[in-house]
Each structure stands twice: as structure tokens, then as C-alpha cells.
């Protein structure tokens, strides 16, 4: 069997792009390499590795977990079953944060619930002058995040904390978070990639807002004057999150749309003197 033969069979079971990604990963080459090696016979060990990856993907396991990587905001982020897989929708959160801190000479940024560290690392990469810290209650997630920071050469302070408890008394110019926001029992949790991702990073109470309530309560005292709280949320949660932020005393509350035109991020600013 040649590589082209294997790819042809794989495409009958999984997405064509997924098949190419798995083959490139297993064979240690890029897409151009797949084309160049298309007519080469597959050695038995390579065929066995490819078949194992194919079976796991056909069973629904995320490609990002199979290859151990996901691109996010131009960075190669290592991921594993202990962390949420970074998604393009979340890039609007990074973009908005960068806009909020653009005029500051040395912005202080906190990523709450960092997981793989993707958001914190993207902000640090785009704003090297910033003092970026990131927290998570999962030691397994922090281990992955620290490794990503070391591999990418980006300095971020990693903190073990249940939400913002460990940073009481500190002030930040921007607090960002992609918290759990899916409703407990939502049928989507049993579908697609979500079946394999950590439930603690996905679900948050009957209405999906439990963790967002905590953030909106804890964040304002930890914001500097004019500092922003920015949170990702579900496709239909923007009005509820804006209400939570207004009740928390934040000003200029608004929402921003993702690449699909969905209100994906909401934020508010601490008034001067509050």
C-alpha cells in the first residue's frame, strides 16, 4: 500500500484534511512532503501507526489530542486531554484585550482559567512589554501551560488558584477569561470533540453562567482604574453576561462578535475612582 492509497481509504472514513494532518504527523513531514511521498510504499510500522490514528479519529477523538498540537493566534500550542482545545472563536478575546492595553506602556494582564496557556501566551507574544500572569486551579493544565511558555520562549507568571482567590490585593489593567459556559446536561457535551475534553473546562451550572457570575463578582476589585474585564461566553449568553457586568458596577459594557458573526465576548471597564 502506498501513502496515496492509505489517504484514499482514510478519506472514506474521516475528513480529508484530518487525514492529511494525521499522516503528516505520523510521517514527520508537511503537506508538500505528503505529495512528494504519495507513491512510496508504506513500511509496516508506519502503516500500523497511521491505522491506529485513523481508528481513534474515526471514533471521534479530536485531531488536536492525536497530534498534541493546535495553532492559535500564530502560535504552536501543545494540548492534551487535560486542557480545552484552543479554537479560532477565542481569538476575538485576544484581539479585544490587545486593543484595551494598546496605549499602556507596561500593561498588567491576567488570564483566568488559562488551560493550555494559549490566551496568555498570545497576548504576551503580541505585547512583549506587558506583565502577563495566568492562573488555573488544575495543576495538570498549568504543567502544560508552563511547558508551552518555555518552548515558545514567552515569559508568563503561572499561578495555581481557584479563579481569582490567589491574586487578592493585586490590580490588573485587563482580566481575560474563557471560562466554562455550557449548561450542565447540554446534549452538545456528548457530541464531537467535546466528549473528550475535560468537563470541568466546559460546563458551569444549569444555565452555564455559574463561573461567569464568580468572575463578575471577583474581578472589579482587582481591576485598576479604567481596567477591563473581558469574558468569552456562549452564542446566546451575551445579554445575560452584559447584565452581570453592569450589576457588578462595570461601565462601557459591550459585546464583540466572532468570525461567524456571533456575540462571543463581552466586557466592561472599571470606572475611574471606583
TrEMBL record:
Its EC number is 2.1.1.297. PROSITE patterns: N6_MTASE. Substrate binds at residues 178-181. It comes from the Bacteria. Residues 99-183 form the Methyltransferase small domain. Keywords: Methyltransferase, S-adenosyl-L-methionine, Transferase. Residues 7-68 form the Release factor glutamine methyltransferase N-terminal domain. S-adenosyl-L-methionine binds at residues 113-117, 136, 163, 178. It catalyses: L-glutaminyl-[peptide chain release factor] + S-adenosyl-L-methionine = N(5)-methyl-L-glutaminyl-[peptide chain release factor] + S-adenosyl-L-homocysteine + H(+). Pfam families: MTS, PrmC_N. GO terms for molecular function: nucleic acid binding; peptide chain release factor N(5)-glutamine methyltransferase activity. Gene3D superfamilies: DNA helicase RuvA subunit, C-terminal domain (1.10.8.10), Vaccinia Virus protein VP39 (3.40.50.150). GO terms for biological process: methylation. Belongs to the protein N5-glutamine methyltransferase family. PrmC subfamily. Methylates the class 1 translation termination release factors RF1/PrfA and RF2/PrfB on the glutamine residue of the universally conserved GGQ motif. This is Release factor glutamine methyltransferase. It comes from Methyloversatilis universalis (strain ATCC BAA-1314 / DSM 25237 / JCM 13912 / CCUG 52030 / FAM5). The lineage of its organism: Bacteria, Pseudomonadati, Pseudomonadota, Betaproteobacteria, Nitrosomonadales.
Amino acid at each position: 500500500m502506498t501513502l496515496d492509497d492509505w489517504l484514499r481509504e482514510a478519506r472514506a472514513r474521516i475528513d480529508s484534511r484530518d487525514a492529511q494532518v494525521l499522516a503528516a504527523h505520523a510521517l514527520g513531514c508537511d503537506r508538500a512532503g505528503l505529495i512528494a511521498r504519495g507513491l512510496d510504499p508504506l513500511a509496516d510500522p508506519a502503516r500500523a501507526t497511521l491505522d491506529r490514528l485513523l481508528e481513534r479519529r474515526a471514533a471521534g477523538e479530536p485531531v488536536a489530542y492525536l497530534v498534541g498540537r493546535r495553532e492559535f493566534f500564530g502560535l504552536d500550542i501543545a494540548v492534551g486531554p487535560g486542557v480545552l482545545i484552543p479554537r479560532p472563536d477565542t481569538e476575538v478575546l485576544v484581539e479585544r484585550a490587545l486593543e484595551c492595553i494598546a496605549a499602556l506602556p507596561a500593561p498588567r494582564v491576567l488570564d483566568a482559567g488559562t488551560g493550555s496557556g494559549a490566551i496568555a501566551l498570545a497576548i504576551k507574544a503580541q505585547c512583549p512589554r506587558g506583565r502577563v500572569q495566568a492562573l488555573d486551579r488544575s495543576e495538570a493544565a498549568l504543567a502544560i501551560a508552563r511547558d508551552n511558555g518555555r518552548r515558545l520562549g514567552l515569559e508568563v507568571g503561572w499561578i495555581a488558584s481557584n479563579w481569582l482567590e490567589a491574586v487578592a490585593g493585586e490590580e490588573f489593567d485587563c482580566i481575560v477569561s474563557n471560562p466554562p459556559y455550557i449548561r450542565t446536561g447540554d446534549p452538545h457535551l456528548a457530541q464531537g470533540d467535546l466528549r473528550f475534553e475535560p468537563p470541568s473546562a466546559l460546563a458551569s451550572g444549569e444555565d452555564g453562567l455559574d463561573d461567569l457570575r464568580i468572575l463578575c463578582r471577583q474581578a472589579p476589585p482587582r481591576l485598576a482604574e479604567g481596567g477591563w474585564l473581558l469574558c468569552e461566553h456562549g452564542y446566546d449568553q451575551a445579554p445575560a453576561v452584559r447584565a452581570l457586568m453592569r450589576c457588578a458596577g462595570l461601565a462601557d459594557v459591550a459585546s464583540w462578535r466572532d468570525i461567524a458573526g456571533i456575540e462571543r465576548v463581552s466586557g466592561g471597564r472599571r470606572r475611574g475612582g471606583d
